[in-house]
Amino acid sequence: MTDQGVTEPGDDLPGKPTFASRTTLSHIMTASDTNLLGTVHGGVIMKLVDDAAGAVAGRHSGGPAVTASMDEMAFLEPVRVGDLVHVSAQCNWTGRSSMEIGVRVMAERWNESTPAQQVGSAYLVFAAVDEDGRPRFVPPVIPETEKDRRRYQEAQIRRTHRLARRRAIKELREQRVAEGLED
Ligand SMILES: CC(C)(COP(=O)(O)OP(=O)(O)OC[C@H]1O[C@@H](n2cnc3c(N)ncnc32)[C@H](O)[C@@H]1OP(=O)(O)O)[C@@H](O)C(=O)NCCC(=O)NCCS
After folding, report:
1. Rounded distance, CA 117 to CA 67, Å?
2. pLDDT tens digits, 156-182
3. Ligand 1 site, residue 162, Cβ cutoff 6 A
4. Hey, which family's this protein in (predicted)?
5. Are 94 and 139 in contact (CB under 8 A)?
6. pTM (two decimals)
């Protein structure tokens, strides 16, 4: 382990291009996927998002990876029974042991011959882990297109905000404990 808890070695892992682990998972929605309104339950879409992102994280890091967080999950349009849903995921950014995976959810309507419509999107952070569940180094992702480079830069902004938010909440909780305040 390093002083920051990541299993060594790995500092000099060769980079991998974004396209190498890009993945699309497709699924036809069925009646068992619905909520009380008869449209597809958000949790069903989130499971597909986590599955697709997990496949990318495993492929990019070359081994097991666990979901550390999911944020900015947006549901833009309802999905209906019979719709063909495509969940496309790619590695936007890599840290030492973590990867931000961006996911886009598209739906082809079962009764229309129109182009697939975007119905959702999400960003997930996966941590690559060793057989003991400890974080391990990941290969740096190499963004190759302008779109990949933009996504990399935006992922860095999200990373900065996630860390700042976690730190601020941790400090607040420590301060409340120090002041003897209980929930
Ligand atoms: C994710 C996990 C491996 C992190 O372990 P840890 O001991 O906290 O290790 P670290 O603090 O070194 O974090 C490892 C990396 O994950 C990132 N990370 C950890 N928690 C995070 C969070 N909540 N959001 C975003 N990133 C996170 C860290 O920033 C670090 O990134 P870096 O190595 O690229 O700098 C650990 O919390 C875990 O196993 N969680 C359960 C995961 C799981 O079971 N998911 C499935 C849900 S059922």
Report:
1. 27
2. 999 999 999 999 999 999 999 999 998
3. yes
4. Belongs to the acyl coenzyme A hydrolase family.
5. yes
6. 0.92
Strand partners, 16: 141
Top-tier CATH class for 16-144: alpha beta
Q: Amino acid identity of 18?
A: T
Q: Choose one of 50, 66, 94, 124 to mutate for the ligand 1 pocket test, by most ligand atoms within 8 angstroms of C-beta.
A: 66
Angstrom distance (rounded) from CA 31 to CA 109: 15
How close is the Cα of 121 to the center of ligand 1, in Å? 21
| Inter-residue contact 28 to 44 (CB < 8 Å) | no
User: Distance (Å, rounded) from C-alpha 143 to C-alpha 148?
Assistant: 5
The order of strands in the sheet holding 98-108 is 23-28, 84-94, 98-108, 117-128, 65-75
- Could you tell me which of 10, 48, 15 has the C-alpha nearest to residue 29? 48
Q: Where are the domains of the chain?
A: 16-144
